[in-house]
């Protein structure tokens, strides 16, 4: 039980995750994703000797995992850029899906955040109750 309580340290990440799934957090993620698409498209255009417009088009289609295959990377560096863009695109899509899911479950879930001391007190109270029940059962068996 105490090992499980050690996991409570991760609950401190809850405010960060909550902020990330908020409207403001999604705005920053969208901005970062947009900048990544522009930079990735420019890098791809430079590496593959295509126009900037086609590079950005390729970056967006790659990030959305559509990949029409009309423009494909031919160099190793272009493939590395493609992998990075795919990871950012999938990550951003996951954030959006998570934020939407959070809006659906938010009204029905009551958040409970206990500190380590509160959890230890709860565990001690449960342990004391269990000991009382065990003593009562033992007396019942003996009688």
Quickly list its features:
single chain, 143 residues, mainly alpha, 75% helix, 0% strand, rod-shaped
Which secondary structure elements does this structure contain, and how are they paired or packed?
Blueprint: H1 2-6, H2 14-20, H3 23-48, H4 52-63, H5 76-105, H6 116-142
Helix pairs in contact: 3-4, 3-5, 4-5
Q: Helix content range of the residues, please?
A: over 70%
**Structural class given helices, strands, pairing?**
mainly alpha
Q: Using the alpha-carbon principal axes, give the shape.
A: rod-shaped
Alpha-carbon distance between the termini?
33 Å
Short summary:
The protein has 143 residues and is mainly alpha-helical. Helix content is 75%, strand content 0%.
Would you give an account of this structure?
This protein has helices at 2-6, 14-20, 23-48, 52-63, 76-105, 116-142. The protein is mainly α and 143 residues long.
């Amino acid at each position: 039980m105490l090992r499980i309580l050690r996991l409570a340290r991760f609950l401190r990440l809850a405010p960060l995750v909550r902020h990330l799934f908020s409207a403001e957090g999604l705005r920053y993620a969208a901005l970062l994703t947009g900048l990544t698409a522009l930079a990735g498209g420019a890098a791809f255009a430079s590496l593959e000797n295509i126009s900037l417009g086609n590079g950005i088009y390729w970056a967006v289609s790659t990030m959305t995992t559509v990949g029409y295959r009309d423009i494909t990377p031919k160099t190793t560096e272009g493939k590395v850029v493609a992998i990075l863009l795919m990871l950012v695109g999938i990550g951003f899509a996951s954030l959006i899906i998570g934020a939407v899911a959070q809006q659906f479950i938010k009204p029905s879930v009551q958040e409970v955040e206990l500190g380590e001391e509160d959890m230890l007190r709860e565990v001690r109270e449960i342990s004391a109750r269990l000991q009382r029940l065990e003593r009562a059962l033992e007396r019942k068996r003996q009688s």
